[in-house]
């Protein structure tokens, strides 16, 4: 029974709160008082162990266990009307002791007490208003009134009051917490009992084998005989706890592992847990002790030295040595015990029903593994302390450094007169300090400190430790901004927690948010990179651990809170994007498999610019193991689909960012031989076009260079000092550009200007910035960021000072931007040989990619605060610079325009809506339009410019479907109309050739926009007057000429559909084609979105062109008689009859889109529309045909010529009996509208005759 009671409490009750009722019923069913007493005693014993344990803030598991045991204790005592005896547990005194000892103890005690009292509501005796219960509740109410009590503790008390049906405002808090007399007589329950200092901890007796006694003996001796160092200082990576993994020692001869190899995975977790528990107190204590000693000695030794760099290096050497030594003697023994204990617990949890022999093997293994890995864990903590100590020492000595710098700026040698006097009067000559520098023998002492760091192998590297943590810590400590960022984060998290409904308060995700808040508070208090790293890991793992099955609102709030924390850490005033993105990516790579493949969370991190895509792409490709890791393959497929297929919702991600992932998926698909994972072939088919286009230009091609520039725009990890060098060079270049000698008014001045540029380039080479492509890329990225930041600051001045002159503000922005653009243009022109156009274009694409990448990241991060001005200025000035009338630029003009088109396509409004006004201004600039549509030979610029207009229409489409346009969208729409009017006037042939592609993406209700496009006709054509009486359309010379359509409209047709369509047009088989046609065109049952509009448009145009060719092959021309009785007309008539109102409207619109200037398509589709009207079997079809034509005529001009002649023929020709139809006279206002349109089309007199039935056709 003792074993069962211990097992029940330790292995079940403490970790399975959901089954407490079951276990309580189990006790009731047994009805064994002796066993019940054993369980109760075991419960008290475990509670006391946890109450007296080390209460580290990050030890969430102990706090969770204590809460669970509190709930269990209340259930088996209070709920069953049994008291909690004072001798077993004094609850009131426990609260008092926790209050006195501080917040850490309260974090343990308050939730525990709340859980105990929770069960009193089910008790007849102890439910409120029982005096014992109310006395404790009054103490909690008194605690609740404390202003500095943590929010989550107040929340625990409030939840308890709600559960007990008490109003916290009606409780009667006393003055117990301030009662000094009671404090004096307090029996401590939160302190560990006093120990004899003989052994660090008794290890279990090991007697079975001879070999197993060795580790036990060595374990007890480590306190007196430190082992020889095993690691050099640079071997240990303290970037994260995962840095321990490569060095962990696992002895293969350990019997436990031979019998149970799966237990090896417990070792890493046990060691990491031990380090995590000890790292913060050891680091803080070591630095605190070493700091004062080191500071005083260094101040004394270097008091007369004027060189601050020598002082700083010596301070770092000494601090490094003292801190490491202090950490080593502090943490070795606790580490040994902690690792051993963690291992035993892990082994025991894994082997729950272990035999005595197995338990003995576990003890042996734990002892040996603890001994083997203690040195590693100790080195990790030592180096962590050293990395944190350096910046701390810089803070302490900052004043000393500044005094020396100030003296040097004033041209004098620094010397502390007080120390000089003391040295001269008091110190003997042999040890007296000299003015000017420290004696070499004294420096040798500091160098010895650097060579022999305690716990590490000796080294000859005397450089200061510049670990990955130094930079973020220095950045964070350099200003109080980091505290403000943390405070803001804490406030917002608290607001989120308050907004969670009480019914969800105990939800695991709500509890996880409270835990996250605690870690944020701890990080705010310590404000060091170690704590920040722990917070970052918790936030990332929390996101990855989120389950979509939870309450939707709570899940959304949960994700927002975790992103909020990561964004706060990413803030440039805190730790910055370089550091944060690197850590987050590493967390994603190194986390456990059950977290790693949460596609929603990873997509969320990528969307928010929190992942280094190059590094993550490589990892994902490798983790698929050529298709063997099915989980990774499925995850990669989902991620590619979300990021690159489903509306490509993440603007800054392209195929280049997932290059290796897609390549691996392609390879898996190719080698699968028909057994590819479900959906992979279809996914690869969708991705293939963009991917292959990228491959075609890869590794040196322009498109590859642009996408690599975009990817590298989000990279950081710059070499030390690069930003400062880039800033210096940019500032010097701006001064040079704006100097009088750099004017461009004469050839001589321009030559001097170019000479200055060459001098600057040589200076760049000396600085090491133009030595490699990577450094060039980083230089341009940094310059772009700095110019943009200057622009933001200038515009912020205008917001703070509305009276400031906007022109002056813009000039201030342009001052740097124009100089930067000129530098890019000159470097493009002068890169490589004069005849080597590839180098120039690659550089241009790379720079444009960098600017695009910076813009997209800025757009996503700043959101509503994003400013278009700096980016617009860079693009427009660079476009003008590179289109200047110079021979070297003329040779690369088409490639330059292609680069700008690709840039604008990547920045299309659906991807960067905040840039849309600037984008429209760029693509409509007179120079750009002229170059693209007029100057480029063989109209090679036309398809690229057409794609840009399609990008614009696609963005406008959702807004235009809703007639209620907002003011910003009205402005954008008017701008679009103006662009189309310019194109209609100057480049009508362009609109003629691409009318299909444009109309394909314009919503059906955008009548005027479509009319502008359809009204275009070639400039060399004289358009016949459609109002000419008795106009014979079929006699016009142009009516048999087919128009040029440059859009691949058949590409949207599914292959099988097109095959069946061609077969039907030739042989009228398969016979089911017409009956299946509607279902092939239908995509959903949602009103307004039932049909595939693009497929309907393609079907109509394709069938029409095939019909025209069929008629011409028979030696005829399209007319009302020749278009009938054919497979082509069967399809059109079937669509008119079989489709519902929505589908028929789209079908008729597709026909009306071909009614343009005189050509064979206009003639055929005009005849088709009239034929469908004449042969319609219901008036509903005729009414809908009339509607489609009429709504295009009642808007402002221009009106397409083909539309006019079709409508005139319809209302004028008595064969159609138009005026006899009921829908013409259904309402007075409708009839009046028809009369008005008829008068406009035919003149008042002729219209009157037609309406009265006297007119002739």
UniProtKB/TrEMBL annotation:
Q: Name one Pfam family in it.
A: CNOT1_CAF1_bind
For this UniProt entry, what is the primary localization, expressed as one broad class?
A: cytoplasm
Segments forming domain CCR4-NOT transcription complex subunit 1 CAF1-binding: 2-185
Tell me the keywords, alphabetical order.
Cytoplasm, Nucleus, Repressor, RNA-mediated gene silencing, Transcription, Transcription regulation, Translation regulation
Compositional bias of type Low complexity: which residue ranges?
204-225
Q: Domain of life here? A: Eukaryota
Q: For the CCR4-NOT transcription complex subunit 1-like NOT1 connector domain, which residue ranges apply? A: 484-688
GO MF annotations in UniProt: molecular adaptor activity
The entry's cellular-component GO terms read: CCR4-NOT core complex; nucleus; P-body
User: What ranges does the record list as Basic and acidic residues composition bias?
Assistant: 189-201
A Gene Ontology biological process in which this protein takes part is: regulation of stem cell population maintenance
Compartments, record wording? Cytoplasm; Nucleus
Q: Domain CCR4-NOT transcription complex subunit: where?
A: 261-408
**Locate the CCR4-Not complex component Not1 C-terminal domain: which residues?**
879-1238
Q: Which family does it belong to?
A: Belongs to the CNOT1 family.
Query: Assembly and partners?
Result: Component of the CCR4-NOT complex; distinct complexes seem to exist that differ in the participation of probably mutually exclusive catalytic subunits. In the complex, interacts directly with CNOT6, CNOT6L, CNOT7 or CNOT8. Interacts in a ligand-dependent fashion with ESR1 and RXRA. Interacts with NANOS2, TOB1 and ZFP36. Interacts with TNRC6A, TNRC6B or TNRC6C; the interactions are direct. Interacts with YTHDF2; the interaction is direct and promotes recruitment of the CCR4-NOT complex to N6-methyladenosine (m6A)-containing mRNAs, leading to their deadenylation and subsequent degradation.
Q: What is this protein called?
A: CCR4-NOT transcription complex subunit 1
Q: What is the lineage of its organism?
A: Eukaryota, Metazoa, Chordata, Craniata, Vertebrata
